[in-house]
Specification:
By secondary structure, the chain is α/β, with parallel strands linked by helices. It has 7 helices and 7 strands. It has helices at residues 15-21, 38-47, 65-72, 88-97, 141-157, 175-182, 192-200, and strands spanning 55-59, 77-82, 102-106, 133-137, 168-174, 201-209, 213-220. It has a 7-stranded mixed sheet with strand order 3-2-1-4-5-7-6. The longest helix is centred in the last third of the chain and has 17 residues, at 141-157. 38% of the residues are buried. The chain binds S-adenosylmethionine (SAM).
Length: 221
């Protein structure tokens, strides 16, 4: 007998319907832009690897489209950090129907310390295997680059989420920025950003999304 590896969510209105119902227009001034294609969303989540029994923290869930797919991949717990309170009803609805604990935090991820956010039982020694914790997010470009620089500093100090060990991250970046992050030595794209990222992480370019977005998985060295 084959066992399904995807959790089925109870029937929920589609994200498209929720956006209409709660008038969640993407605000261009906040660089908001929602991914609507289910196959693309599930490809992003799959590219992060297995979430089974992991604590997953998603930054910038918006109406919750990536969040739904994360939940379906059987994590032990999901934390979401969102700046824009307009998404409250849509995210609360998802939290109510989620078969795994889903905790909403409203705030700016740039001011957020992930030091106490995860289960102490998931803590690993740095040299040991990666902990069952994953960070994921499709953030606006004006946030994702300063955020990764901030997180690289936290990694170097083994602070914030990296107090729990070599926590993996799957994030989206503007294509040109991603190319610089992943650039091998002696290439045109090689830059200070390449050195900073690759000093601390194994940078894996996963795939490009039409519209100049690139998915990058960071494994820590
Ligand atoms: C590009 S949209 C992506 C929405 C959704 N995850 C998707 O992929 O369709 C970025 C999301 O990040 C949120 N956001 C932007 N800046 C943020 C910040 N500093 N802290 C937390 N969330 C932020 C926005 O409100 C928005 O919901």
């Amino acid at each position: 007998m084959s066992v399904s590896r995807i959790i089925r969510l109870p029937p929920l209105p589609s994200i498209r319907d929720l956006i209409k119902l709660y008038k969640l227009r993407a605000m261009k001034e906040l660089s908001q832009n929602f991914l609507m294609e289910p196959r693309l969303i599930s490809r992003i989540v799959r590219s992060a690897g297995s979430f089974k029994d992991c604590e997953v923290c998603e930054v910038g869930p918006g109406p919750g489209n990536i969040t739904r797919s994360i939940i379906q991949n059987m994590p032990s717990r999901v934390l979401i950090i969102e700046k824009d309170k307009r998404f409250t009803p849509s995210l609360e609805l998802l939290a109510e129907s989620s078969p795994v604990p889903l905790e909403l935090i409203f705030g700016d991820v740039m001011n957020f310390n992930l030091e106490q956010m995860f289960n102490e039982d998931n803590k690993m020694e740095w040299e040991d295997k990666c902990p069952q914790i994953h960070l994921i997010g499709n953030l606006p470009f004006n946030v994702s680059t300063p955020l990764i620089i901030r997180w690289l500093k936290a990694i170097s100090e083994r602070k914030s989420a990296w107090r729990y060990g070599r926590v993996r991250m799957t994030l989206t970046f503007q294509k040109e920025v991603a190319e610089r992050m992943a650039a091998p030595i002696m290439t045109r794209e090689r830059s200070r950003l390449s050195v900073m990222c690759q000093n601390w992480c194994r940078v894996e370019h996963k795939f490009n999304i039409p519209g100049k977005i690139t998915i990058i998985l960071f494994y820590l060295m």
